[in-house]
Design brief:
single chain; 125 residues; alpha+beta; 3-stranded antiparallel beta sheet; two-stranded antiparallel sheet; 3 helices; 7 strands; 30% helix
Amino acid sequence: MKTTSWIIAIVLIIFVILGIYFLTQGTVKTPVTPNPSLSPNPNPTPTPTHSDLMGSIANNHGHTVVLTAAQQDAGQAVTLQLTIGSGHTHTLSLTAAQVKEIADGKTVSATSSTNSGHSHVVTFN
C-alpha cells in the first residue's frame, strides 16, 4: 500500500506541475518594442499620377508646348520650348511653384519669350 500511495502522490504532483505550466503559457508574455518603421502610416501620401499636359497658346499660329508628367512629378522650375510656328520658336519659363500648381490641377498662365515681335500667353489646365 505504501508504494501505491507514493505513485499516486508523484502522479498528482506531476499533474499539478503540468497544470500550472499549461495555465501560464498564455499569460506570460515577453515585452515587444514596436518598430516605428514597420507601423502603417495612418495618412499615406498618394503617389501622384500625372500625364503630359499641352498648353493652350493665345494668338497661336502653329506653336505647341508640353509640360511632361516627369516634369510635374519633379516639381522643379522648367524652361519649355514652344515648337516652330511660322518659322520661329519661343521659350516659356515656369517656376517650381507654378509647376506644382499645374500638377495639382490648378490653372496657371505665363507669358513666353518675345520673338519675331510678339509673345504668347500660355495656359495649362
